[in-house]
Design goal:
With about 140 residues, the chain is mainly beta. About 10% of the residues lie in helices and about 45% in strands. The protein has one domain (about 25-140): Beta Barrel (OB fold (Dihydrolipoamide Acetyltransferase, E2P)), CATH 2.40.50. It has a five-stranded mixed β-barrel. The radius of gyration is 20 Å and the shape is globular. The chain starts with 5 loop residues before the first helix and ends with a strand.
Length: about 140
């Protein structure tokens, strides 16, 4: 070595920070169900193709108005390799689809508002799930 082994490390750290990488302590970690989580964000509705083909036949498929929570900050959802139902780890999750919303919850009246959603995170497995991670809703409240 040329007497300065720390220079490449300093260059690596400097270039990583210059590229906009964030330190890991800025990330919030969550687990899949059965853990109950609280997520904060803005409720938005987006048009998506529904049954029967979920976009395979745009002339016959229903068009749905699907609720999503655009999160205040990205999260990481931790999988569990010992539990096949727990799902995979997903990093940088910045929005989740709301599913199993309790009857009587007037989501359309809360569109484009900041909300706190309590529920259970699940990995998407069905065509009707439009994000990699969805939340089965227990409650929706204004902060």
């Amino acid at each position: 070595m040329n007497g300065r082994p720390w220079i490449p490390l300093v260059a690596l750290v400097s270039s990583t920070l210059a590229c906009g990488a964030r330190p890991r302590q800025d990330v919030a970690f969550f687990k899949y169900a059965p853990d109950t989580v609280e997520l904060r964000g803005t409720l938005v509705f987006e048009k998506r193709f529904g049954p029967p083909g979920y976009g395979e036949d745009t002339l016959k498929d229903l068009r749905l108005n699907v609720p999503f929570l655009r999160l205040d900050f990205p999260i990481e959802v931790l999988g569990d390799s010992t539990n096949p139902l727990a799902g995979d780890t997903h990093q940088g999750v910045d929005r989740v689809q709301l599913t199993a919303v309790p009857a009587g919850t007037a989501l359309h009246e809360m569109a484009n508002q900041a909300l706190v959603v309590r529920g259970n995170l699940k990995e998407a497995v069905w065509g009707r799930q439009y994000t990699q991670v969805v939340i089965e809703v227990i409650s929706v409240e204004k902060p």
